[in-house]
Design a protein that fits this description.
The protein has about 475 residues and is mostly beta strands. It has helices at about 15-35, 420-425, 455-475; strands at about 50, 60, 75, 80-85, 90-95, 100, 120-125, 130-135, 140-145, 170, 180-185, 190-195, 200-205, 210-215, 220-225, 230-235, 240-245, 250-255, 265-270, 275-280, 285-295, 300-305, 315-320, 325-330, 335-340, 345-350, 355, 360-365, 375-385, 390-395, 410, 435. Strands 23, 24, 25, 26 and 27 form a five-stranded antiparallel sheet that branches.
Length: about 475
Amino acid sequence: LNFPITTWLPVPPLDFQLLTHNKIINNITKEINLQMGFSIRTSKFRHVFCDAPKPEETWTGMRLSTVTGDQQYIKASSKYFVVALQGGGGPMCVGRLDRPGRFDQGTSPVVHGHKGSVLDFDFNPFDDTMFASASEDTTIKVWGIPDEWEPTDDQGLFKAGENLTESLTDLVGHKKKVTLLRYHPTASNILLSTSADSTVKTWDVEKGEAITSIDVPDLTQDIVWDHKGDAYATSCKDKNVRICDARSASVSISIESAHEGRKSTKLAFLGESTKFLTSGASKTSSREIKIWDLKNLSKPLCTETVDTASGALIPLYDQDTNVIYLCGKGDGQIRLFEFEDKAPYLHKLNDGYRTTKPTKGICLLPKRGLNVMKHETARLLKLTNNSGVHPLSFYVPRKSDAFQDDIFPDCAAPSHAHSGDQWFSGSSKNPVTMPLNPALSGGKAVKKKSFKTVSSLSKELDEANKRIQYLETKLTENNIAFD
């Protein structure tokens, strides 16, 4: 045969050629990086992803309140979420996370009792059925959701029910509208509030009174507790960030002009580290986030410019995974960063989540409410103007169906570390934690302190008085003396 020998050799498939070519390029790149001293950073959350929720997984039909401010507009526990609605008496929709569907304002039960519009709310971290609401009527009300609460049925259709109109307790002390609320992360029934009267108050919910109060020079844009709840931080319209001792209600340290722009400044303590995050805008109105060292606040450790959009940035920090979910009001995108307690501090993970529907408000669910067996590492509830509430679940792709303990460390448990009186007396403790592995016990069940409404207490008192009167009559009939 006179044909060249090469014509008898089989030609490799195109995909095999590309695979071999990519391997060669990767090997060359690794060798160059090693010789030049570069190293490739690995992350367990580099490939985290989020798919758009299906229509049957959302909550719709709510006529949202038109009141605006610096609040998040939506808050959630591991069982319920709450949003403010239009109407008199400050109505609120409390939806069940296990019952997505259509809400009908006028048929479905609502929570109402304020005399003005509701501005903010926050769930008790140790009781998924208890939340506090702040209103334009200057009051704070604490509510308890009954076990039979069902605004939608198991088919996703609206369901008639009795409205909740009586709060567990009212906190009165602010002179103007109350704008923001934050529950204490480790002590039971301690609540932080701020108002348009330029004060920040710490409340003992059990006693129904303010235990500390501090004056601030301008309208407060954000308030956050630190990891243990020993201190809290405030940001004001004067562009300064103040970190205050929570027990003495005094300013410990401050950041002068944390961001030079006029957009709202939002805050986050980064777990047990001494680092602190602020989000705001530069002098040229570019949105940015900064990482600060609480031991030296003279200048930021790093500054990350985001974009030039107009809405305020809301940083949602997951202290278990060190992932920051950067959300913007009016945005359709959620950006993901991973925090590391060493330079360069912030690492962008991927493109995050993108959609054409703008965000009105957003919140992060507690870890104990996630589907860990499907490797769901975070779930955000996104409130939109016209299409309801969307659950955004972020997953880490894994081949195994087993529990992944490397991406699910112990998380905060629904148990307080100390009482409010112990905390105010100087006790400082980390949050109580629990394992997320379903095969392990979640720890000892802690008996929750029960609250009763005025009407229920009055009913019990009437029944007790009738019983006493009956017993006294019987004693008199039998000629038995009593005092």
